[in-house]
Specification:
alpha+beta
């Protein structure tokens, strides 16, 4: 079988001629129609916040958090990408830190290297 399932050679050629005729009739009209208008939407400029200001803001947000008094957490920011490194005593403390980081203006992305200290007295116990 040539061309397709159940089609003879002549039927296949007729269908190709029909498709070519339709395309031949439509192509000149498409070539003459004007291109669609291009709409340019400018995004609002986001203020650039210095990396030092981002880390200072995060530290200020977490300064009075009692769950983090004995935590060893370090923050540093590079071009709005904040890396969080350290150890916290519980999942609640972890959530507090991550919420403070994510909600700080200027943070574009978070590199989460924060861990929960499972040997901490305030860590969840398994029974």
């Amino acid at each position: 079988m040539k061309g397709g399932v159940g089609m003879s050679g002549k039927a296949w050629m007729r269908s190709l001629v029909a498709v070519g005729s339709v395309f031949g009739a439509v192509a000149p009209a498409l070539a003459q129609s004007p291109p669609p208008p291009v709409v340019v939407v400018e995004a609002e400029a986001q203020p650039v916040i210095a990396d030092q200001a981002i880390t200072a803001s995060i530290k200020a947000r977490l300064q009075d958090n009692k769950m983090l008094q004995n935590a060893q957490v370090t923050f540093f920011s590079t071009n709005g990408i904040v890396t969080v490194v350290g150890m916290v005593p519980s999942s609640f403390a972890y959530d507090d830190v991550m919420e403070a980081v994510r909600s700080t203006p200027g943070v574009l992305r978070v590199d989460d290297q924060l861990r929960i200290n499972v040997s901490s007295p305030s860590a969840p116990q398994q029974h």
